[in-house]
Amino acid sequence: MVRALDGVDLDVWSGEMVAIVGPSGSGKTTLINLLSCLDAPDAGTLTVAGRGVTDLGEEALTEVRRGRIGFVFQKFHLLPALTVAENVELPQLFLRQSIDRAHTLEVLRTVGLEQRAAHLPRELSGGQMQRVAVARALITRPAILIADEPTGNLDRANGEALFALFRRLIDRDGLAVVVTTHNFHLAEQADRIITLEDGRIIRQEQRRRIGTGNVTGD
Ligand SMILES: Nc1ncnc2c1ncn2[C@@H]1O[C@H](COP(=O)(O)OP(=O)(O)OP(=O)(O)O)[C@@H](O)[C@H]1O
Ligand SMILES: [Mg+2]
């Protein structure tokens, strides 16, 4: 059996950006998937926004995942036939929430793309596409944003712009952001850097002390 993670203990606080770094195969995506409730741990507990999720059934887990957690992926995963606004509203469609275009435009304004609401993804740059993906992640007002290599397909300037956007959201909304990256320069913008190696946390560097409420716990 491969032990992808071993004895990892992690709390994430609202208003905090946590960067997870480490070599390829060290367990970053595995850890992110656990935090995302996409995988269940063999042992241990997981709490999201004060709610124990370790023993929840698949349906309840899906609800937590969609309602409390926003996801950003390396490859954006926008639907090419939908407009920017429709892409952003997709999670609400899944959650059967009422769609409010004014709210959508407000979220798009947050990521600087209000003017692009009616455009198709192919009419955008990579950096813009990733900001649409961030807007899509924010539309359900999540407590935590989880991003696995979100700058992996971006150039340096767009990568930095994305991290600056994360920081604005953290300061404005008290969002928690957990982000994996291979880019140490970007990781240094986080409040805490966690280094994984062979499925273990080998180093935790607290760069800025903050935190008001527990979002996820071991
Ligand atoms: N579905 C799976 N089944 C079995 N082993 C897996 C599975 N997914 C990942 N692993 C193993 O778990 C370990 C951690 O993999 P993980 O994908 O979390 O690494 P990572 O740090 O995200 O790497 P990268 O930087 O390349 O994305 C590796 O040894 C990997 O081979
Ligand atoms: Mg990975």
Give a verbal description of the structure.
With about 220 residues, the chain is an alpha/beta fold. It has a domain at about 10-80 and about 140-215: 3-Layer(aba) Sandwich (Rossmann fold). The protein is built from seven helices and ten strands. The strands form two sheets. It has a six-stranded mixed sheet with strand order 5-6-7-2-8-9. It is globular and about 45 Å long. The mean pLDDT is about 90. Bound molecules: adenosine-5'-triphosphate and magnesium ion. Adenosine-5'-triphosphate (ATP) binds near residues 2, 4, 25, 26 and 29. InterPro entries: AAA+_ATPase, ABC_transporter-like_ATP-bd, ABC_transporter-like_CS, ABC_transpr_LolD-like, MacB-like_ATP-bd, P-loop_NTPase. Keywords: ATP-binding, Nucleotide-binding, Transport.
